[in-house]
RNA sequence: CGGGGUGUGGCGCAGUUGGCUAGCGCAUCUGGUUUGGGACCAGAAGGUCCUCCGUUCGAGUCGGAGUACCCCGACCA
């Protein structure tokens, strides 16, 4: 399979859909646009959850859970919000099936129609704010800092494995604050958590920035984003954090008595990342041999493959491996010994590469004699022979190196594909080549929309921490004055 | 909902201007030899060719209708 994939450009989609994803992580479900995440893929997601959860807790956020079903009426309270999601909602209308009177299978029982339809949550702002109303009366009740891990459903017309599925897994944080400043600070803090997570755990260099008004979350006053660049030069929004102002508090009447005893509406944030991060990983780091997992995320960091002819050799090798495994595990490394006896080593090598395991150790008779081990790293595909003596610290260091190298490689790729552009004709051709274009923009939604219509490019963000470019210039499209450059790209 | 494409053993595909017993690769099973980069040899099993209707001496192949899935657009994280 892997060897049939050659050039990256033309086979990218093929590679992504068939090779890595279908081979190991997930598959398209019979339910339209949904996906089955296989155990190995899910293990990666679980690792993401664990790391993020720890980071959230350090900011004072606690996990909670809210219902899957949202009464339709909740949904219509916030006008912008409903406009943003109305077109992609799954709706529950009935609560019972019956045998088909004409004898074939079952049908929906028409007498079991719900008085009020239920919406399968596309996001939980409405039901959460309806709940927060009952939790908040005094300034002493604030802030509320909740997160939930759950699934949501957005009935997309077109789906794409991991990036846009009808049902996906995510976390959504929802906070309530006494002041605008506090809420804004929280939204900023959380996008910072995402950036930290993306960079240090996923080895994904991301740009933090504000969304343009046109790209904001439905109902938000400000949306901040982490934007990643995939290996084909397209942008991928990897996480967002929203400052919601008092929109939801007003819609759901969430007020508190401040220290002076006056009633005020609370200020809100929400923020989320999803299984889309899995897609980001695959497309940012993968190569023709499959997935490349950063060590901090890999469910298995080291896989050991025995090489042998006779069973006695195998016993001796497995024995040696068990010792090394113990040593590595004591150093905090997760290890798997692949002792399957029906498969040849070459096959196992290829299989673990496909799964993206960062380090492979092979021990054969030659190594047993010499006291060595063959160590191969997934990121560079290079191999070297290392002494078994003191192997654990060497592997720990190697894992760190790999983590860093994967990040640096992705960063170098991004750096090589970010460029300034000041001419509309050039823009039109350059943008199709992929990458981020730093351009002046007059700040109007009209211009943004025109550019999107003509080139499919969108404003990915107004950068906050990298590629910040505060300077006077002229809008690339309209020629009107502009005070800073923004990032344009074609995105997933 | 518009435009395009594809339905053939488990998976991926070939099948010519209609022709006789529907092939190939991978996977599977059996036996043997192998094992430091996806093993090899020998043998075996496995198919209402998406469905229905039609044309024909004869349909996987031609025509019609239906149906499912995929890709491209509009929508979106």
What report would you give on this structure?
The protein has 492 residues and is α+β, with helices and mostly antiparallel strands. It folds into 3 domains: 2-91 and 121-285, BirA Bifunctional Protein, domain 2, CATH 3.30.930; 302-398, Rossmann fold; 418-489, C-terminal domain of ProRS (Translation Initiation Factor IF3), CATH 3.30.110.30. The protein is built from 14 helices and 26 strands. Strands 3, 9, 10, 11, 12, 13, 16, 22, 23, 24, 25 and 26 form a 12-stranded mixed sheet that branches. The longest helix has 26 residues, at 391-416. The chain binds one RNA strand of 77 nucleotides through strand 13, strand 16, helix 10 and helix 11.
Structural Rg: 26 Å
Number of domains: 3
Number of distinct beta strands: 26
**CATH homologous superfamily of the largest domain, by name?**
Bira Bifunctional Protein, Domain 2
What structural class is derived from the secondary structure elements? alpha+beta
